[in-house]
Write a structure and sequence with these properties.
The complex is a heterodimer of chains A (257) and B (428). With 257 residues, chain A is an alpha/beta fold. Chain A has helices at 43-50, 68-71, 92-104, 112-124, 140-153, 170-185, 197-203, 220-223, 226-233, 238-250, and strands spanning 5-14, 17-27, 32-36, 58-63, 75-78, 158-161, 189-193, 206-211, 213-219. In chain A, strands 5-6-7-3-8-9 form a six-stranded mixed beta sheet, with helices on both faces. In chain A, strand 1 and strand 2 form a beta hairpin. The longest helix of chain A is centred in the C-terminal third of the chain and has 16 residues, at 170-185. Chain B has 428 residues and is mainly alpha-helical. Chain B has two domains: 2-282, Orthogonal Bundle (ABC transporter involved in vitamin B12 uptake, BtuC); 285-428, Winged helix-like DNA-binding domain superfamily/Winged helix DNA-binding domain (Arc Repressor Mutant, subunit A, Orthogonal Bundle). Chain B is built from 18 helices and three strands. Chain B has a three-stranded antiparallel beta sheet with strand order 1-3-2. In chain B, strand 2 (349-352) and strand 3 (355-358) form a beta hairpin. Classes of the chains: A alpha/beta (257), B mainly alpha (428). Chains A and B meet through strand 5 and helix 3 of A and helix 7 and helix 8 of B.
Amino acid sequence: MKPSVETHNLTVIYDKKPAIWNIDFTLPTGKIIGIMGPNGSGKSTLLKAIMGIIEPNIGYSKLFDQDLEDVRNKVSYVPQRQSVDWDFPASVWDVVAMGRYATKGLFKRLSKEDHRMIEESLNKVNMTPFTNRQISQLSGGQQQRVFLARALAQNADLYLMDEPFVGVDAATEQAIINLLKSMRDEGKTLLVVHHDLHTAQDYFEHMVLLNSRLVAEGPTSEVFTKDILTETYGGTLTTLSKVASVLQEKDFPMRHK
Amino acid sequence: MEFFTEILSFFTFSEPNVKVVFWGSLILCSISGLVGTFTLLRKRSLIGDVISHAVLPGIALAFIIGQQKNPLYLIIGATITGWISTYLVDYITKHSKIKNDTAIALILSVFFGVGVLLLTHIQHSGNASQSGLDQFIFGRASAMNMSDVWLFSIVGTIIVILIVIFFRGLSLLSFDENYSQSIGFPNELLKLVLSITTVTTVAMGVQAVGVVLMSALLITPAACAKFWTNKIIPMAILAVVISGASGVLGSAISYTYNGMPTGPWIVVVVSLFAFISAFIGSKNGLLKKHLQRNKNNTKILRENTIKLFFNPTTLGETRYNFEDIFAKSKMQRATLKKGLNLLKSDKLITVSNGIFTTTNLGIEEAKTIVRKHRLWELYISRFMHLQPDHVHDDAEGIEHVITPEIERELEKELDFPTKDPHDSDIPY
């Protein structure tokens, strides 16, 4: 079976300092995979780098053994809910319709089939009654459902989700996890950034533990251990962060040509 | 009166130049309304200000090189320096420790300063054809001629076509840049389309409005439109209508009073639209908020007054004269009178010989408000773990907020209680 996501020495430098450093892993398909780590550990950066939103400074990633450009319509990205201004003049339907732009491109009109897929996606997240609602009038949980519906409308094989459980009510959280499980059962792969350790074990079958560097990657039963968690959450490596500071202060290059 | 006949004479196109001014301002302002919609939605309002100030050195340089006031040269010059300024702001923000607002202030003042220097230099150079160049600072629509208008229509049409073609991409870019990138939309191309159309619009618009006030024309119409609609296409259309109307009206006024610059008048008119929109705009309008607040205050007064008539022992009719009820209340005389009048007109009480008597309707209302008060006291003492002597003030406020639906839920959740935390009966 082809791996879903492969990264090779993926490194992203913000302001001369590595935000993620040498991330190297291969992830299975058809699983709900959690990306866990403390605040500022580079979880979102990792997703953005995989999705080509941030150009990695070093390294590369492959999706289904191919370059992103060749499989883009099989991959869907769900940004953090707080990353957009929900006061934007758009309705729930408008936002979910953006999911169809992935295949329609800039110019092609939406067909009947597209409309059907939009409605179906809204239905899957129980947002049909809110179809015409202005997005500014939604609660946090509803906003997150709209983002998920937009991703569903893309009908992808791999979903990269940035903190879908943040700021949502308990009912929405349960609804989302049920949705993710049913997607997994259809053979989709879900890569989910998450930070709540209490629920992690129940939600994810596979995990990536991150703290600027890769701490561990593997099936939850193997990597969700006390030692690994301590290593992930127990603060940064002193020497590593010293090296990073020197890189930043002295403006050294990370690699020589 | 004379003012209106003068204005009216503008719209009859009695003077040939009026036609030029009319079409010129209409085209320039409409386009800036359209482009400005995206400037606003992308939260780049201040960039509009940078561009408009930065076109001044471009205009001056174009004149120095061309030695004449050819509109095409001036627009090209303006576009070039305008574009350089946005590029510099983005570059500085991205590649240095200087924050975006600082970069904006920096670039704006440097470019404008250089522009003013160059203009002064031109004015002292004694070139006769330079006259009117300084009007770019505050704008002068009457200085336009027919060839300007033709140029504006051609460039304007191109801008409109570009925005219509890329409308989907531009909307998505404005709403969610990361997602747009993730589905493979050409974000860099879309940003280029926006910056080119914005810079060109500003470069042309300064003719009518001037560099100092151009950003107002870019942003204000879109900001007005957002008060009226929550959909992007109607918003863009409305912004175009508002800015077009402001442009025409503003230039009509300034044309009527010969010698007045156009820009300030256009901005005065568009600000008037903004003022009106903020007050009565269908969404979030201040008037609506004000009316709602008034409605709330009336409801609170009405309920507080009928509460005074609550009879805790019989739960039935009560009779009071004004002094008794005034002594019971903590209100001012005038407020209480107003409250009593409200009750009277709603037939909750009757008045005869200075005695206020509750009607059946009034008895029910009084019971309802007391019931809501006591249910809420019980609710918060139980779920917020408050002591019984801490719940009254909160309930005084919330009793007016509780709708019949919420009341039913409270009853259910508290299992149809009969006593409040102070051991008083909850009246049903």
